[in-house]
Amino acid sequence: MFESRYIYCDSVRVPSVLTQIADLGLGVEILFESTEDIWPQLRWENLLELADLAAETGVPVSVHGPFDGLNLGSRDSHIRSYTLEALAASLEAARAFHSPHVVFHTGFLLQYPPKNAARWLDQFSRGLDDLLIYARETDVRLLMENTYEPDPSLFEEIFERFATPSLGMCLDTGHAACFGRVEPETWARRFLDRICHVHCSDNDGRDDLHLGLGQGIVNFRSILEPLGRFGNDVSVTLEVSAEDAVASRDYLNELIQAITAQDVS
Fold first, then answer.
1. Of the candidates 131, 117, 124, 138, which has an alpha carbon nearest to the alpha carbon of residue 72?
2. What is the mean pLDDT of each run of 10 residues along the chain (265 residues)?
3. For the whole model, what pTM was predicted?
4. Nearest one of 180, 182, 174, 245 to 216, comparing CA atoms
5. Beta strands at 61-64 and 101-105: parallel, antiparallel or unpaired
6. What CA–CA distances, in Å, run from 227 to 20, 34, 82, 118, 190?
7. In the chain, domain spans
8. What is the structure's pLDDT at 263?
9. In the list 43, 73, 99, 231, which could disulfide-bond 124, CB 3.0-4.6 Å?
10. Which fold has domain 5-237?
């Protein structure tokens, strides 16, 4: 339970901090913050060099795909096409890193009126269907991350359309706490069978501050406990600053130990 634990880092900075991450006893979640790092030409030489470096330092890798401005459900066909290509490239990168998954954002905008939201969902579903073909070919799982969604309804509709195990969920505790209109644990309980990765960061309930664990209002135990009891293999990434890395790692380790001990007793 929660055996794989990572800390996130922008792909550009990863080579300079891998040793420190190894010393923390964590893996690294590589964030491709810009599509320039993987598309329109996948820079295999750089990626394979980084993959070798991670393997040499004994640091497992999780991959977070690019997301800024990307949208599989966009009305603009060029944006849809570019999004598909960029996310497909991130799946290839994940295969090189031996990452079990790629985390991605839906790109859904809350400002869509109902009619446009329905049209977006249909377009998104067509794009996701194509992307899942790449996921199966690379043997890498796609994980949708909750971002600005106020409640689980959109994810419920998407998962109803896609029953495939190639599509799972990444639950972001910080996003659920500051953007959601339901308690964060509602997400955990609703998608117990889909969640296989969790992003952990804290905040004040208003802004996505990426505070260290225990510094804000997020009740991590209420989120992680039902996932632990369900028994799926769930990994965790700390989305915190380098300054908060040690304290957050210790907080997480102690919390998981407490949950495990409770389950045993």
1. 124
2. 94 94 98 86 80 96 96 97 96 95 95 92 98 97 97 97 97 97 97 98 98 98 95 95 97 95 67
3. 0.96
4. 174
5. parallel
6. 29, 32, 35, 31, 10
7. 5-237
8. 63
9. 73
10. TIM Barrel (3.20.20)
